[in-house]
Fold these 4 entries.
Entry 1:
Amino acid sequence: MEIKVSIIIPIYNAARFIERCLLSALNQGYKSIEYILVDDGSTDDSLRIIKDLILGSPRGADVHLVLHEVNRGVAIARNTGLNASSGDYIYFLDSDDELPLNAIEILVEKLGNTNADIVIGEFSLTGTDKTGFKTTKLPDGHYEKERILDSFLLMQWPDMTCNKLVRLKTIRDHTIFFEKKIIHEDTLWSFMLAVRSSLMLVCNQITYIYHIQGQSITQKKTDHNFNSLFYVLSKIVDISIAENLFRKDVHIKDYLIDYCFYYFKESVRCRTERDKSRITFAEINSQLDRIGSITEGISRSSQIKLALLKSPFGWAFLIFKTYLFLKGVR
């Protein structure tokens, strides 16, 4: 029996890119695909372009267009796509990116006769000077249970939602949906997926073309961005406590310290926006305090980061600002 794949494309004011994106999906060589297009209240020509492409495609009957009357955000658009899907596996494609010709076929072949929860492909990046950059730092192969979470915590595979075949049954059985009204929902979704998955396959062939856009909302630091960072941190700590991960995985503390240190670095660079968020640095540290014996079993690098995080913020700010100055970062 052929594996059915649901390609989910959330769309909002994507008129500049959607033809390139949708044609790359419709031109896939793999046959058993349904296309779930979720227009999230676009006000430009996106919808007209989509409808013209559907009418002109021999695969038009496989396309399901779902409309949101108003813009509700990418998280809700993705959830709408998940609820509308009937495939064995889902695959997220962003409307400003595209697929190589046989991307889905390559990933399904990797899946083989397994019931893997996740199949991860490799990215090709455009709009950047990072030539030869690899987003997945794992060799081809099978990864089971604790090794899946461990590799996530070590950041050996990207926490982006795109370029992954994900078993729909796994998502629905464990209610792995997207949190609305936050920016960093990809990280939280991928973490939950790593916690709940039993088998992950890695394919180092390029199955996604990622177009880097200079004005990405995650690149522009706003008060909403900082609030989202804090929300994701607290949810990861909640899940880690509930699943007893601090006893099961030696890297969870290092990961959380890195996460808090990332917040700290962005606070230094964008202090005004961080202050607007009303999330105090003490509240960030309070999440680390929930872990318990935080210093036990952490790396030397994490010990240094923790010392900065636990120091009075004024001193830590001065030290890190000096470091940025010496590195030539403004």
Note: Strands lie at 5-11, 33-40, 63-68, 89-92, 118-126, 141-144, 164-167, 199-211.
Entry 2:
Amino acid sequence: MKTRNFFKATILLLSIAFFASCSNDDGTSYGDEKSKTNFYITDAPTDNTNVKGVIVTVADVKVNGVSIEGFTKTTIDLMQYQNGMTKLLGNLELNTGTYSNITLVLDNQTNASGDAPGSYVLMTNGTVKAIQSSSNEIDINGSFEVLASSENDIVLDFDVRKAIVESGSNDFKFVSASELSNSVRVVNEASAGEIKGTASDTQNTSDRIIVYAYAKGTFNSNTETSAQGSGVMFANAANSASVNKFTGSYELNFLAKGDYELHFVSYTDADNDGKLEFNGILDAESATGVNLNDISIGSSLNVNIAVTLKAKS
């Protein structure tokens, strides 16, 4: 497991006797064996260079519709946990089996100290902008499996880029409830892998390059490069990461087992307003001949891919 930021206070204290019975109301069967299950949160990058922090206040966490006991309302800056860095949310004993319907309940009004607002965007100039929302709950699509082992690590990947958009005069809002459900992934780290490497922009025409990972065969350049729903581009990407401008390195962490394709996208600040605009999809070629449209990821598998980038002709 990657090094955790344990020096920060744990934001959940969870103690729960989680259904000693072997079945759930939805018919899901659970084993008799219990495993310590740790919950972590991580974040994907935003494409707004004026944003310094995205702070949310979590008021409750539910698994299969049941609130976790002993929870402490907590405020966290999601942007502090990117590129494989995670924050421990808490841990509990769970029976082996598959769990779904994870719900994050936010307090958008007040933070853990009782100050307003509870959820907000911190701009680079120090301005605080409250995040508007019509709902305070995020029902996460997907499920996770608790394996028969001494310990399980479950990662919630909160994609700020998908979840929060600008509204009006540089204000911010959460996207619709259905879009929010797709903005957070859940994966057992034991069943996940990662893709990392370097990307060399030979023409150096980008202010930022973001690499998007899609489930193999799901990328459609016509729809993904257009604003969808609440105005999100590349809305169906499974994961994304910024390419380091100085070293060219990138990391796509906590990818569930499966086959993926990678797409490298150029952004520039053409009008110097601090906001990055889509500049085009770059041609990418693997230095070792890896097919970037067919990359298999398995449990604990780390794939290293160096690519050369250039603008499409």
Note: The longest strand covers residues 51-63.
Entry 3:
Amino acid sequence: MRFVLWGNGNRGVSCLETLLGAGYRPTLAVAHPQRGKKWYASMAEVAQRNDLSVIAPEDPNAPETIDRLRGEDADLFVLAGYGPILRQPVLDVPKRLTINLHGGRLPEYRGSSPMNWALINGDEFFSLSVIRVDAGVDTGDVLLERTFPIGPDDTIVELHKIANEAFPEMLLEVMREIDADKLRPRKQNPDDARYFPLRFPEDGLVMWDVLTAEEIHNRIRALRPPYPGAFTYYNGRKVILVASELREFEFRGEPGRVYRKTDEGLLVCAKDRCLWIREALFADDNAPLADTISRYDRLATVQAAAERLYLEGRSPC
């Protein structure tokens, strides 16, 4: 079976290595254009080390790219972490189908960043799906699905580790089913569909009188580095919230106020109760917040912002 692997980052690398180890060799690898140093592995470099042809088009839907793809005479396109949306002319190129690795249960988690959203939503489980790509957004038949538990303190780093270990084996299973003509597709129920949009760095803002302790904890673990991070402000400086912990014992107080400062971290109150901030760094110099902040100091709240506007003689409304 002739196939083209479209991939990026650790997901693309792990899938490529697993496929090669099992005797599945793509005729072509399609990678993202490389711009500067990245924190994740380069699939293009791994492909080149294995003497594979590699392209990294600026526009995968451009006519010249489609002409190049047609020359591969591929039965199958495989998407493993590849970001840009492929239009119908590209999807029409392979003779059999295009499949994609999606980090969420379908149809409940269509759209962007499903693993981040699962953590933000406080889910106790997340699913990985291999799907047939059609003209819609994550609307194609589900070819294989696996579900994994989410621990109360698991972060996006742990979920990606699970995905990077599970996806290659899932892909290999589907490839073998395609080879044997034994696919068992599941139609998605559109009545259960939910769509989650692309996230932006500014979406991680934490105002301590707006969100509950659990909501803040979930944002911190969903957005921790190497993602841009949940963030707040202290004395006008941006602070990246790296790690947190919820305790069963409830300590309550005024939102944004720091009530304890110990070797364990900072106990900060949210809208409903307090949580421990285990690690927080200033965005401008990466210095620990704990080295600067004092007990009873306050982090960013809507109330504090309104007070400041009033003192400056400006209306907050």
Note: The CA atoms of residues 10 and 260 lie 39 Å apart.
Entry 4:
Amino acid sequence: MYDWPEVQWANDELWTAIAGRLGASGIVAPNELWRTENADDLWGHSDLFIVETCGHLVVHELRGRAEVLGAFDHAVDGCRPGDYRSVLVCRADEEGDTLEGFRGRVAAVNQTNSHSGHGAFMTTVVPLAVNGSFFADVEITGSHRASMRAVANGSADLACIDEVSWRLGLDHESAVDNLRIIAWTDPMPAPPLVTSWANVGWRDAFNTVIAEAVAFSDLLVRESLHLYGYRPRDTADYGSIREHLIEAESSGYPVLA
């Protein structure tokens, strides 16, 4: 989920550590990460081994098809280990400090099946909606990074960016220099690592190895990924996301016009 080009080397090193430890425990793991432009090819693959996905998918498209292992801890302010939240960002020169001031403006959304970029956005503006609507229009950007750029260049006015992506933006994306945080969403379970049901018998071994690999990774790897630990989680933990989405859906999806 956080495989920006600038940190792919760090994700590769982390996976090498995980795969090596799995091999030592008798579980044969892929030697390399598989990267694909179409994430659906990965999440729905019949040979899915381990993947980090979005909590929204766990309670929708992947429901009943994958088992949650756990979540990385990124030490997000205001969140428990293994939780995260999003920041709502506008251009730095915007006047005002309240969300109400963005009624009738344009929202940038990475994709509609993202909790951090759409679901959390939707549930945050529900109380501000008028006649089931809040924004005049929405621009689907394809990624959090593209949403940052959309707001910075003026094609959109407000975006909901998961806080780990925001930190990566502070490290690597110049558009962030033209943005500021105006609000935060409620904490939710962080993007989970999942495996296919065929591998459920290895769940405990997976979690032990992943936690060890994170704990003993090189400091530069952990700093580059803003990685502080790993927390085993259950699929049921992500029911809170589904409950929030159902509540927002009953209000008519006010993120959209």
Note: The chain has a mean pLDDT of 90.
